[in-house]
Design brief:
Largest sheet: 3 strands, antiparallel
Order of helices and strands: EEEEEH
Helix content: under 10%
Strand content: 35-45%
Number of domains: 1
Distance between the termini: 11 Å
Structural class: mainly beta
Radius of gyration: 14 Å
Shape: elongated
Number of helices: 1
Amino acid sequence: MSQDGIFVGHKKHYGWVIPVWINAKNAFGGYTGAQLYHVMYSAKDDTYADITELFSLGRVKFLP
């Protein structure tokens, strides 16, 4: 579950959190090194959202 901030109404979003390692190429053709991102899939809306920043700020909770 992730939750929006105070300025957008504290709306709660439920879905699956998927950790993804991405290794991108830079402009010189070299790889930048794998970086961890967190993506949330919501079956209700059939959408994906990057929640990496929310995850690092502790705004994402794992529910049993």
